[in-house]
């Protein structure tokens, strides 16, 4: 079953039981890379008066993400050797006191822990899978207690169905919700130098050779722009050597991790997805919501990329293809702005926060009824 957005916003008043008391289990990666969608979900649950708990790793600063009404539990409480039993006991006691009755695992890396916690508490759980993988070594799922598997994209649903046939009927797609900006950020300020944002895992410097070669030729042709590069990975140092060899170091600002998507995307008229990604990209979603013009390669989790509608596409293995794609955006600014508006329109129709919250609450309620049966 797939939840789809439409033009009519759902009303959750008198639809969902107010007895729901979910605990959301997150990781450092989710708090960093998915902070904006998580903030929207927590705010939506708070607006629906759902008593919610967020379980996060110790020494994580979730203050900018969590509404005041959400209870935050850092686990483990004590980062001292041989205290595992006491940390687990503290967590179970706190959740029992808060009367938690549904668990939501937000990261595949926390699947086994959530499965254990569900068994100890005798409550059902759901898990969100954000990425494609040929194998699922970390996705530990209980057929008795895992009621649903939530995916943000059809490509992920298909991949999971192909690898875990027994789970197919439990997979549900919920589109990640966002709020679109009133205006289009793409080339809105003609008095400043254009900004290009590149977001990707920095795993292999070869993945970026064609892209920066194309950008260098655009600069030689007289196009003025600055580049913001964000990502982490072992290719960071080789990438700096590549940029130095191309004479582009002064054009690039590097940000290792994105914790404030709004501030990062404010610098970008053009957002580039340079290579296929195995995980849903929330930064791509937020770039579209801001009205940036997106240039992207297809492949991987590319559900948001609709050629000539929400993005211009290129072949990441072909430097000339990348050059021609970006040149179109720089030379035809009104076309680029129209692309940004089209993407915003698509998100308004398919990726609303209200629908995301309503569908999530629906799954929580279904999970509770399923577990009773």
Give your account of this protein's structure.
Helix 2 (35-47) crosses helix 12, helix 6 (206-220) crosses helix 10 (319-331) and helix 9 (282-290) crosses helix 11. This protein starts with 21 loop residues before the first strand and ends with a helix. By secondary structure, the chain is of the alpha/beta class. 44% of the residues are buried. The chain is built from twelve helices and 13 strands. It has a seven-stranded parallel beta sheet, with helices on both faces. It has a six-stranded parallel beta sheet with strand order 10-9-8-11-12-13, sandwiched between helices. The radius of gyration is 22 Å and the shape is elongated. The protein has helices spanning 28-33, 35-47, 84-97, 111-121, 154-163, 206-220, 236-246, 261-265, 282-290, 319-331, 333-350, 353-372; strands spanning 22-25, 53-57, 71-75, 102-105, 125-128, 146-151, 171-173, 194-199, 225-230, 252-255, 270-273, 293-296, 312-313. Helix 7 links the parallel strand 9 (225-230) and strand 10.
The portion of residues assigned to helices is 25-40%
In spatial order, strands of the major sheet run 3-2-1-4-5-6-7
**Major sheet: size, sense and barrel closure?**
7 strands, parallel
Supply Rg: 22 Å
The amount of beta strand, in percent, is: 15-25%
Strand element count: 13
User: Which descriptor suits the 3D outline?
Assistant: elongated
The topology string of helices and strands comes to EHHEEHEHEEHEEHEHEHEHEEHHH
Count of helical segments? 12
As residue ranges, the low-confidence spans are 1-16
């Amino acid at each position: 079953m797939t939840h789809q957005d439409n033009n009519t916003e759902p009303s959750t008043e008198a639809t969902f039981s107010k007895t729901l008391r979910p605990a959301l289990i997150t990781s450092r990666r989710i708090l960093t890379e998915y902070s904006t969608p998580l903030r929207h979900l927590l705010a939506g649950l708070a607006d629906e008066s759902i008593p919610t708990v967020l379980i996060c790793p110790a020494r994580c600063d979730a203050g900018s993400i969590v509404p005041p009404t959400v209870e935050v539990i850092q686990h483990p409480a004590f980062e001292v050797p041989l205290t595992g039993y006491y940390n687990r006991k503290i967590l179970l006691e706190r959740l029992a006191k808060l009367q938690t009755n549904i668990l939501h695992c937000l990261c595949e890396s926390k699947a086994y822990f959530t499965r254990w916690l569900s068994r100890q508490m005798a409550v059902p759980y759901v898990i969100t899978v954000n990425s494609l993988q040929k194998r699922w070594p970390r996705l530990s799922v209980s057929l008795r207690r895992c009621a649903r598997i939530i995916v943000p994209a059809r490509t992920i649903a298909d991949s999971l169905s192909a690898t875990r046939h027994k789970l197919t009927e439990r997979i549900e797609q919920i589109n990640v919700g966002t709020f679109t900006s009133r205006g289009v950020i793409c080339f809105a300020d003609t008095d400043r130098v254009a900004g290009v944002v590149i977001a990707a895992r920095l795993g292999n410097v070869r993945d970026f050779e064609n892209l920066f070669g194309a950008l260098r030729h655009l600069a030689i042709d007289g196009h003025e722009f600055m580049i913001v590069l964000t990502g982490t990975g072992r290719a960071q140092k080789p990438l700096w050597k590549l940029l130095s060899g191309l004479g582009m170091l002064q054009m690039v600002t590097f940000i290792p991790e994105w914790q404030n998507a709004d501030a990062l995307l404010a610098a970008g008229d053009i957002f580039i997805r340079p290579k296929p990604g195995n995980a849903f990209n929330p930064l791509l979603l937020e770039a579209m919501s801001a009205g940036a013009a997106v240039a992207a390669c297809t492949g991987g989790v590319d559900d948001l990329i609709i050629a000539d509608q929400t993005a211009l596409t290129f072949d990441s293995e072909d430097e000339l293809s990348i050059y021609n794609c970006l040149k179109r955006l720089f030379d035809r600014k009104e076309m680029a702005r129209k692309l940004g508006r089209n993407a915003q329109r698509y998100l308004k129709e398919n990726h609303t926060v209200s629908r995301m919250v309503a569908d999530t609450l629906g799954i929580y309620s279904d999970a509770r009824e399923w577990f009773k049966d």
